[in-house]
Amino acid sequence: MTTSTTSEASASAPLFDLQSLVVAVRRRRRFWCAAALLGLIVGAAVSVLVLPPPTATTKVLVAHQEDQPNDPGTLIRTDVGLLQTTRIADKALRSLKSREKPEDFMRDYGGTGLTNNLLQIEVTGDSDAQAVARAKALADAFVADHVRRIKAATDAEAKTLLDQRDVMRDELAQVNKAIGDGSTESGPKASADMESLFARRAELTSRITDFSQRAAEARVGTPQLIAGTQIVDAPRAVHHSLPRAAATNSVIGLVLGLVLGLAVAALGTVVADRPVLRRDISANLGASVVAELRRASLRPARLWRSRRTQAARTRLTTTLSRTVRNSVEPVSLLELGCARATSVIALDLARELAADGPVVIVDGLPGPQLAGRRPKPGDPSVVSGERAADVSPQERRLGVGSVAPGSAWTDLQYLGTRTVLVVRAGHGSAAWLHTVARQLADQRIEVLGVVLIDPDPRDRTDGTLWDGLHTALRGRPERPARPNTTGRRQQERQPERERQTERQPMWAAQGPDSDQEAR
Fold first, then answer.
1. Hey, is 19 helix, strand or coil?
2. What is the C-alpha to C-alpha distance for residues 286 and 433, in angstroms, rounded to an integer?
């Protein structure tokens, strides 16, 4: 029955939980806000440190012989390509009397086709004056080259037409000679030949006239094209506004940094697979979330937050003290990613339990959160894990330990056979939470519940398991309490072998095995 329930739960689990991703990314807002701020700073720094070179611009109106209203911009793109040639660059450098190589000069300028007939040229230089001079020389060289190409094309077309006209004239001369020679002949055949010669002469005369007219028309449009190609916007230096450039680059850097930060945060969340919602943490640990506390509640509270902070800590202490009082066996607090918070909770809980009798905290934390602190008047006694055996049976023990990677699992049962896990949301991966649940089950330590530290304030998911003991508890169920204290003490003094015999069987952890389990 348990296997079937687990299979159904796995089948109903979504492959990609968008809500968990959004919550995890929102919890990492410090990271992507820092990335956006870094992009903003880098953009502003680039504007200040990497200043653009002095630039000049000019605009040239280019008239084409093949201009068409539906031209998609092929002609102006051809002009842009011709501008980036060593021939035009060499002419401009000669007018400037510069010894710079045309290949190097071509890297300092560029052209842009604004319309089908308007070309914009941008040139950089060592100073504004040099940039303006370069722009003027480059524009003049381009106009001269364009005019030369127009004249060459017109002359070539006119020459072709005139050559055809000369050929026709030679043929006409031969026809006229044939007519003169055949005028002395008579007869029907001679008459038919003369008629064909006259028809040919008329055709040749018409074609000669047509070629002459076309050659003249070819040269007529050239002056208009030459006059139409001119500099319409004189070369001028482009003024660079540092505040505007800084603002633009800052906005661009801010957007790029924000997008990159969100992408990295989302990718890291998917790869790390660290549960942040109550339902996910509860499902992976196999125990219900009994209380939660924001991390800010453990810090010195401000005036307007003191009441709310104190109320949250008091509510948590009351919940845990009720759990400890109702437990026959020793209870421990095991932390995962929140050692300092666990030590604060343990001190509050020990002070609350001190009203029922002496309380001793067994410190099993790896750091000096409890053992290295300065005791205050009225604080409970704190002993290290090595001195746990010296605690008197009349004193209530409250163990504090850790289930972080590297913990000694076999020592946890000496802190308490029943435990409350104090877990920071988003700290441990799903695989490690499964490892913790399985190790505690192997050590026969019952998990009473989970205290969630730093939960998402917008989390509305349910962290309570409703499937009964098979999934709600990783350890054994609670044994009925003894009617008196004497029986309780006798039970605590039983040999370890006899206590293990009395324990009921445990259910296996309902989750996939992990390669990250402690060895």
1. helix
2. 9
Residue 462 maps to a domain: yes
Q: Helix and strand tally (H, E) in the chain?
A: 18, 11
Q: Which residue in 292, 264, 335, 312 sits closest to 24, CA to CA?
A: 264
**Max CA separation in the chain (angstroms):** 162
Owning domain of residue 148: 55-237
Closest CA to 292 of 268, 269, 276, 270: 276
* Cross-strand pairs, 419: 332, 447
Interstrand relation of 331-336 and 418-424 (parallel, antiparallel or unpaired): parallel
* Rounded-to-integer distance, Cα 155 and Cα 369, Å: 97
For residue 292, which of 270, 315, 262 has the smallest C-alpha distance?
315
Rg (CA), the chain: 47
Residue 519 lies in a domain: no
Length of the chain: 519
- Residues 254 and 292 grouped into a single domain: no
User: Taking the CB of residue 331, how many other CB atoms lie within 10 A of it?
Assistant: 25
**Residue 186 and residue 266 share a domain:** no
Same domain, 158 and 201: yes
Contact 64, 75 (CB under 8 A): yes
Overall number of domains in the chain: 3
Of the chain, the end-to-end C-alpha distance in Å amounts to: 30
Show Cβ contacts of residue 113 under 8 Å, excluding neighbours closer than 6 positions.
Answer: 73, 76, 77, 79, 80, 119, 120
- The torsion angles phi and psi of 154, rounded to 5 degrees, stand at -70, -45
Q: pLDDT tens digits, residue range 72-91? A: 888 999 999 999 999 999 99
384 forms bridges with which residues in the sheet? 363
Dihedral sign of CA atoms 292, 294, 299, 302 in order: negative
Q: Which amino acid is at 452?
A: L
427 domain residue, yes or no: yes
Give tens-digit pLDDT for 124-176: 999 999 999 999 999 999 999 999 888 888 888 888 888 888 888 888 888 88
CA–CA distance, 287 with 475 (Å, rounded to integer): 10
In the numeric block, the tokens 């008629």 are attached to 195
If asked whether residues 155 and 299 sit together in one domain, one would say no
**pLDDT at 329 > cutoff 50:** yes
CA 342, CA 420: separation in Å to the nearest integer?
10
Q: Are residues 85 and 40 in the same domain?
A: no
CB neighbours of residue 96 within 10 Å: 17
Same domain, 146 and 215: yes
Residues 388 and 415: their CA atoms lie apart, in Å, by: 8
Q: Measured between alpha carbons, how far is 313 from 309 in angstroms, rounded to an integer?
A: 6
Total Cβ atoms within 10 A of residue 451: 24
